[in-house]
Every structure is written in structure tokens, then in C-alpha cells.
Amino acid sequence: MRSRELGNLRAVLSSFFVCFFFLSFDEALAKQELKILKVGNLLNVETGTLTQNQEILIKGDQILNVGAVTDIGIIEKAEVINLSALTVLPGLIDVHVHLIGDSRIKGYRALADSIPKKTLFGASNAKKTLMAGFTTVRNVGSPGFADVALRDAIEEGVIDGPRMLVSGPSIGASGGHCDNNLLPPRFNNFSDGVADGPWKIREKVRQNIKYGANLIKFCATGGVLSKGTNLKMQQYAEEEMRALVEEAESRGRRVAAHAHGTKGIKTAIKSGAASIEHASFIDDEGIKLALERGTALVMDIYVSDYILEKGITLGFLPESINKERTVGRVQRANFQKAHKAGANIVFGSDAGVFPHGLNAKQFSYMVEFGMKPIEAIQAATLKAAELVGRADVGIIKAGLKADIIGTSVNPLEDISALENVNFVMKAGKVYRRE
Predict the structure, then answer these.
(1) Does the domain made of 92-388 have the CATH classification 3.20.20.140?
(2) I need a surface site. Which of 29, 63, 185, 253 has the fewest CB within 10 A?
(3) Residue-wise DSSP of 90-101
(4) Taking the CB of residue 431, how many other CB atoms lie within 10 A of it?
(5) Are strands 275-278 and 296-298 parallel, antiparallel or unpaired?
(6) Are 95 and 278 in contact (CB under 8 A)?
């Protein structure tokens, strides 16, 4: 009898502990799901205003509410994160990065690295970028679809990194900026994206999309870092550009056009490119066209100083350094001109030419060359979100992704504060907290 009673007691106790365990487990899960950020200053990037002593309620990867949380049940279940000493704003977006590869090796030295090795560096670069406060990036150009693999690994939670939109290999003409011109003819070395003529270009667009590209990037003109290309020279005919854009858009993809030279910029805009990368020699007509067509200008005005300072040591080609001595100054002057005219300038740094994680250095240059701090921040939040087609990021608002960063110094007073973020959250998960 006692044995039966003891057995019953054990069963009851076992059931009790099982229930207690699962209740505790459910509470732990609830705390992981629900978070309340207690914010000292909240920056509204739409209006440019700061609001003090706000609360942001987050469930999973989504913002539920911005404002005071009064529900006692929610307060008891939520993890409370004290950010009262910080200015909080949306996670930053860089629309022009190259995560794949070792940013310390350039020119001929870079030929020795295999795509698997470049991809491993990409994993490290992705984490540095995220920890610097950039929660979304657009990767414009990558060998062997390594950027697709990196994007997927991040989305599957294998590694930490920003949300990625990727182009796969950049498409370009034989011998152009998107080709590899470093080796002599006997090596028969061509880059993945080389295509000439409208139908070959259409085929290349289809291949990129087949293997996972979110967007298409092509080279409309020569570039700084390519051997033997003229920055000002257009490399695709208008017929070719139109075929590329038409094919991409028919498959729901936007197009980014690398273009330094005046003619190439205007032809790319007329052909329907969503963004012009670099836009160094843009003239008044080009600015007017961009305004009329709603084309974004992605002007990487920090990188010039890095190339001129570190280029020789890192192995940049001498001709690349000589090109940069001219193009950097012109690009900054045209940045000022385009901004004054009201052009849609979006934040893109060209990180990968310089070390990843230093993307935010560009903000100070944008302010130096004419923008107000809030305009530079808008270029890297709501404007960038619009360009990459992500309506769920770029603003701190109920219903959007919980991509949130914080700085100890108000970036409206000192834009360089964005170079040293103290808090990083992407999709509701905290990655950095100091």
C-alpha cells in the first residue's frame, strides 16, 4: 500500500516538476520574445526630431510599439534593456559594399586568393559590418556567387552579419572595368560577368538571377581600380544597357550601374538604372536627368583619401592611384552640386576597398561637403531602404523590423558618433551592448 502511495506521490511530483519546468521554459521563451528598450533619446529619421525617454516594445524580430508600455503583463514578461544614456536610431544601411575578399590585399596580390578563401574573409567582414551598426547592406559584385552563399549563411543563422541584398558577379564588357585585365592573353582569364551584345547580356542577367541575385550590377564606364580602363569612357552601348535593365526589371530586379564618366552616367539613367554608383563626373544635365527619373546617386566620397594614403602599401596599381588623384576631388565637388540641386543621394561607401567596419567614416565627409547630419543619416536609413526595396527597415516604427542602434553621443550634434556605436540590434537580436 505504502509502495503504491509512494508511486502515486512520485507521479504527482514528477508531473508537478514537468509542469514547473515547462512553465519556466515558457517564461524564458517569453523573455526572449519580448523586449522593452528604455531609450534616452529616440531619433525620428523622417522628421529629424529627438524625443526623450521613450520605450520601444519588441516581439521577436518586429517592433510592436513605440511609446510608453503600460501593460503590466507585458512588463513582467519582457526583458528590459536600459538605453537611457544613448541616442537611438534605425540600423544603418550601406548600399555599396564588397564583403567578399581580404581588403588588405589589392592588385596582382589578390589573384592568389581562391573564391573559398575570399568567402571566409567575407564571413569575418560581415560580422565587422554588423558590429559597426550596419544592419542591412547591398553587395554589388562578387566572384562565383560567393555573396549569395554568404547571404544565405547569415539568413540561416550560421554566421552573424547584416541583412544582405546581393548582385552576384558584376556584368560588363570584355576588357572593361567588370573584367579582369591583370593577366596576359595566354591565361585566357575572364571574369564571371563578362558579356557583349544585348542577347549575351540578357543571358548573363538570367544566370545571375537563377543563382540567387537580388539585384543586377553592371559597369557602364571604366573604373579606378581596373587596369587599362578610362574612367570617362562608356563601355556599353545604350542598346546593351537597355537590354540589361529591361531583362532585370522583367524579373523583378533593380539595376545598379557603376558609372564615373558623364556620358555613361546619362546613358545609364536613360536606360532605367535605379542607381548610379560613384557618379564622379556627373554634370548639370546628368543631375537633372537623375531628378526627373528618380535615379539615386551613390557617391562614395570617403574612399579616395584611403586609396591615396594606403594604396601603394596595399598593392594598388600605380595607374589606379593616379586616377584617384583626379577623380576624388571632382566627385566631391559634384556631390556638393548634386546635393544643392536636390538629388536623391543614398549612402554607399565602397567598403572592401577600405577595411570593413569603417563604413561610417563616410558620414563626416557627407557633412563636410554639404549635408546636414540628419540628411546624411536619412541617406543611410529611409532613403537607402527605399532604394533596396525594403519597406520593413530604415525607420523605427510599429510593424517594421527591429533593426536599432545606439550611440553615446548625439549624431545630430557630432556625426562622427556613428563611427563608434554602443548598441546594435538586428531583427530583435542584440549583437552589441556596451
Answers:
(1) yes
(2) 185
(3) EPEEEEEE--SS
(4) 18
(5) parallel
(6) no
Quote the pTM value: 0.91
Widest Cα–Cα separation across the chain: 98
Confidence at residue 157, expressed as pLDDT on a 0 to 100 scale: 97
The answer, yes or no, to whether residue 405 has pLDDT greater than 90, is yes
pLDDT at 12 over 50: no
Q: How far apart are CA 199 and CA 216, in angstroms?
A: 16
pLDDT at 289 over 60: yes
> Which of 100-109, 149-158, 244-253, 409-418 is the least confident region?
100-109
Q: To the nearest 10°, the Cα dihedral for 140, 303, 150, 235?
A: 20
Virtual CA dihedral for 162, 165, 171, 175, nearest 10 degrees? -10
Distance of CA 258 to the CA centre of its chain: 16
Length of the chain (residues): 434
Confidence of residue 59 (pLDDT cuts 50, 70, 90): very high
> Are 288 and 344 contacting, i.e. CB atoms less than 8 angstroms apart?
no
Q: Would you call 33 exposed, middle or buried from its count of C-beta atoms within 10 A (0-12, 13-18, 19+)? A: middle
Query: 215: part of which helix (H) or strand (E)?
Result: strand 215-219
Which residues fall within 8 angstroms of residue 192, CB to CB, at 6 or more apart? 143, 144, 168, 169
Cross-strand pairs, 58: 35, 63
The CATH number of 25-90+398-433, from 1.20.140.10, 3.20.20.80, 3.10.150.10, 2.30.40.10, is 2.30.40.10
pLDDT, residue 24, reads 45
Residue 51 is predicted with a pLDDT of 96
Q: Residue ranges per domain, the chain?
A: 25-90+398-433, 92-388
CA distance 348 to 424: 20
Q: Find cell 562614395 and name the residue.
A: 300
Q: How far apart are the first and last CA of the chain?
A: 61
C-alpha cell read off for 244: 540589361
Angle (CA) 211 217 218, round 5°: 120
pLDDT value at residue 186: 59
144 C-beta neighbours (distance < 10 Å), count: 17
Cα gap 57→70, rounded to integer Å: 11
Q: Mean pLDDT lowest for which of 81-95, 101-115, 250-264, 275-289? A: 101-115
